[in-house]
# Entry
Amino acid sequence: MRRSIALAGVLTAALAAVLAPALAAAQESVTFHAAVPQAGESIAYATGGVMQFKTAASAGGREIRSQSIDVKSAENYQLDILDANADAPRRGRVRYFQSESTSSADQAAAKREVGPVAGKTYLLAVNDASNAGSAGLQVTDERGQPVSAEEDKEVRGDFPVFGHTDALCRYLDGKTVTTGKPLEDLDPAVAATLLGAKAGEDEMDQLSLELHRIEHHAGLTYAVFQVRMSGVTDVAGTPMRIALAGYVTMTAEDCRLRSSHLEGRMAMQDQVKTQDGGQLDMRMTGSARILMHLGYAQ
# Structure
């Protein structure tokens, strides 16, 4: 018996010695370098989302009403950089080719809604001395005239960090990242970069990124991160808890986001007082899928 145990120990050690180099070789590393988009460059954005959820109202433990809702959204727009300094773009022109959503309840005919920015062009300018938002971002139409509050909110929401270095890029710049090792001390606020969602509609309080693999295409190094995040999102004015997981791809040479694919679940519970002094228990649960693709051109 002792001889068998000793032999097993020798075999285990020998196997570990053989596998160790292979395991070490399986780990890859990549170093990120920031490159600020300059005047003359363009960034094309394609974003989409799908949400499916069910709402239910109950009283005294008995469900009295329920509804199933499907929502799909899509946006395609292009940002042309008109001016930039060493840190970030300062002026830009954004053209919206598509901005719409469709929704249906209980398998009824889908209702299509076109966003207020669809088919329009806007100018962006950073003026840190102004009071136009926390970033000093000013949004006007293509003639430099003021836009409606609805349009301003929509455009400003698509560019929450215009005029500032992206938080995720600032974190990664100069860092060497290894596959299989989570990024440390990552601020959950950088989740906005990965979601491509409207500023203020999503607040993530937990975020983890781990380099999953490295790919090489057309002379660029693509770092594919596995991501998990959770927080609160706004669905038609209702705050819901959401947890997402998926993959995010960035290029190491310029530290730019190339794509993201996130999926997850969301839920909300609340209590509403009725006019007769009673109480309704409200519950909403569902799933979400968020896709984003960015293309860069000079």
